[in-house]
Amino acid sequence: MIISPSLLACDFLNIETELNCFKDFKDTWFHLDIMDSHFVPNLTFGHPIVKLISQKTKIPLDAHFMVSNPEFFIDTFKDYNIHNFTFHIESTENALELVKKAKKIYPSVGISLKPKTPLSDITDEILKELDLILIMSVEPGFGGQSFIEDSYERVKYFNKFKSKFPKLMIQVDGGVSNNNAQKLRDSGADNLVAGSYIFKDGPLTYKDKIESLRR
Ligand code: DX5
Ligand code: ZN
Fold first, then answer.
1. DSSP conformation letters of the chain
2. Is the CB of 173 under 6 A from ligand 1?
3. Is 201 known to be catalytic?
4. How many CA atoms lie within 13 A of 34 on its CB side?
5. From the CB of 5, is ligand 1 less than 6 Å away?
6. End-to-end CA distance of the chain, in Å?
7. Burial of 4: CB neighbours in 10 Å, binned 0-12, 13-18, 19+
């Protein structure tokens, strides 16, 4: 089980200190929410920040592109040691082509679906090429939203494809906490993204919060 703390919720004024808190953590990725204020209403961070983060940590970087033109970003983010590149199925008409293109650069490539996007938009042909499917359990754009309960069924749907496509990792993003982590794991999730739960809520340490999502 991989846990991906979403840096959108971290203390941006002390980002290096935040990154160092996770030093030597195993099976942990840093989730980077890159938004363009076009595909989603919010605008987050881009090249300079991602570049600096990549220079300050050895933890694998998991970039979630909520942008209207993902193809452009495949090329322009290639020098920042990104481990996983995820784009949205709703942002392109050439998903298969884009996955193939991104796979030439990034070790892992994912596609994300918004909560209302039909699951059948991800064809077998696409699944065969994919390393990761990202089920959004909130509408993309903002941290701190409530988890959408339908998401368990969406995870279960893709879990059925694992016998056919064994390398497929199922990631869930949005409103993830210790209240839903176990049910998500039982439904087939292998990778949980958590922003607010890790960085904002409660007295537990980052390590304890990550462990609480795994248990
Ligand atoms: C939302 C982002 C998420 C967000 C999750 O569009 O994709 O990664 O940071 O934040 P929480 O865990 O607070 O819902
Ligand atoms: Zn995200």
1. -EEEEBGGGS-GGGHHHHHHTTTT-SSB-EEEEEEBSSSSS-B---HHHHHHHHHH--SPEEEEEE-S-HHHHHHHTTTS-EEEEEEEGGG-S-HHHHHHHHHTT-SEEEEEE-TTS-GGGS-HHHHHH-SEEEEESS-TT-SSPPPPTTHHHHHHHHHGGGTTSTT-EEEEESS--TTTHHHHHHHT--EEEESHHHHTSSS--HHHHHHHHH-
2. yes
3. no
4. 28
5. no
6. 10
7. buried
Instruction: Tell me the sheet residues that pair with 63.
Output: 32, 85
Instruction: Report all structural domains of the chain as residue ranges with CATH numbers, in order of start.
Output: 2-214 (3.20.20.70)
Q: What is the pLDDT of residue 112?
A: 99
Residue 174 CA, chain-centre distance (Å), reads: 9
Would you say the CB of residue 115 lies under 6 angstroms from ligand 1? no
The tens digit of pLDDT for each residue in 121-165 reads: 999 999 999 999 999 999 999 999 999 999 999 999 999 999 999
Task: Name the token pair of 90.
Answer: 């709703």
Measuring from atom 10 of ligand 1, which residue has the nearest CA?
143
pTM for the model stands at 0.98
Question: Do 5 and 19 contact (CB within 8 A), yes or no?
Answer: no
**Residue 150 annotated to the active site:** no
pLDDT tens digit string along 43-65?
A: 999 999 999 999 999 999 999 99
Of 143 and 203, the one with more pLDDT = 143
